[in-house]
Amino acid sequence: MARSDNDTWDLASSVGATATMVAAARAVASRADEPVINDPFAEPLVRAVGVDFFTKLAAGELTPADLDAGDGGQSPVGITRFADGMAARTRFFDDFFADAVAAGVRQAVILASGLDARAYRLDWPADMVLYEIDQPEVIAFKKQTLAGLGARPTTELRTVAIDLRQDWPAALAEAGFDSSRPSAWIAEGLFGYLPPDAQDRLLDQIDELSAPGSRLAAEGVPSHHEGDSEELREKMKESTDLWRSHGFDLDFSELVFLGERAEVAEYLRGHGWAADGAPTNDLLVRYGLPPMNPDEGFADVVYVSAAK
Ligand SMILES: C[S@@+](CC[C@H](N)C(=O)[O-])C[C@H]1O[C@@H](n2cnc3c(N)ncnc32)[C@H](O)[C@@H]1O
Questions:
Q1: Ligand 1 centre distance from Cα of residue 161 (Å)
Q2: What is the 3-state secondary structure (H, E, C) of 105-137?
Q3: Gap from CA of 71 to ligand 1 centroid (Å)
């Protein structure tokens, strides 16, 4: 279904299902011969959501042989490349938090937390406070499922169940966030699901809430000429055709916002932050994974690290 201003979802539908999809990719990546990440919560969380295609993927019952079109795993969103990309992305944000903590930051915010299990799987200092923000059904599902599995957060976790198009800064403050202290923020797998002006507004809000010494890591999605949108949507659909034949029932082309948008690092520099971006291939190489064809898949995504 096409997006609307106040649309909502759970983890099996619309934008929420993308959180289940990337968690399934983390489960696949965690099982690699030489894994770059270890997310033991990914598979049980995906299983609990109950979408058959993602459960089979997470459990290893659907393999590259089923989903990579017999091209040796080189398809732009073949499962091998997708899991590699998600492994590198996960490590990038894990490393970002480790660096922020080493620099003395004790307050962190995961925007659009989805099935992110960092509050349960990373080592945090005793005086850390971690906030997670996502839509109410997404927040409630992860909390209940992990509690049911006997998992406990490894830090003080405060969840903020609100849409990021609403007044989330007020909700975050109510949960105890202290904007006079430095904070570390991540926006992983989020911006493509926000219209370009909402991305700007979110960055403005983060800036307003960030004391000097704060840091931000974000996944920046490319800007597109408005006229290219139809062609891009068609390409997106085609790239998951084979997955669809195995029961994949998600049309990204309806979920994402295309068109012209700000380049995240540049936008932040314009607001006085020091910011750098690394394309997907830099991350893949950094973590010992093969690079992608630069014209394909999500090679044009940029991972931004910024400090105020
Ligand atoms: C691709 S998933 C990424 C989840 C998580 N960051 C990860 O990488 O595993 C996209 C997430 O963004 C959340 N999201 C997208 N738009 C949102 C909004 N307007 N308000 C709150 N959450 C939003 C979805 O609920 C979903 O959990």
A1: 12
A2: CCEEEEECCCCCCHHHHCCCCCCCEEEEEECHH
A3: 31
Which of 153, 172, 297 is CA-nearest to residue 238? 297
292 lines ligand 1 (CB under 6 A): no
Residue 27 Cβ contacting ligand 1 at under 6 Å:
no
State which H helix or E strand residue 215 sits in.
strand 215-220
Ordered by where they begin, the domains of the chain are 14-307 (3.40.50.150)
Q: Are 112 and 134 in contact (CB under 8 A)?
A: yes
d(CA 265, CA 143): 32
10 Å Cβ neighbour count for 300?
17
pTM for the whole structure: 0.95
CA of 189 to the centre of ligand 1 (A): 7
Overall residue count recorded for the chain in this entry: 308
Q: What is the DSSP letter of 161?
A: E
For residues 251, 159, 131, 223, the Cα torsion angle rounded to the nearest 10 degrees is: 20
At residue 16, the 3 state secondary structure works out as: helix
Segment 22-80, tens digit of pLDDT = 999 999 999 999 999 999 999 999 999 999 999 999 999 988 778 776 554 445 567 88
Hey, what amino acid is at 127? D
Q: Is the minimum distance from the CB of 134 to ligand 1 under 6 angstroms?
A: yes
For 160, the 3-state DSSP assignment is strand
> Is 220's C-beta closer than 6 angstroms to any atom of ligand 1?
no
Compute, in angstroms, the gap from residue 73 CA to the centroid of ligand 1: 27
CA-nearest residue, atom 9 of ligand 1:
116
CA distance 210 to 77: 35
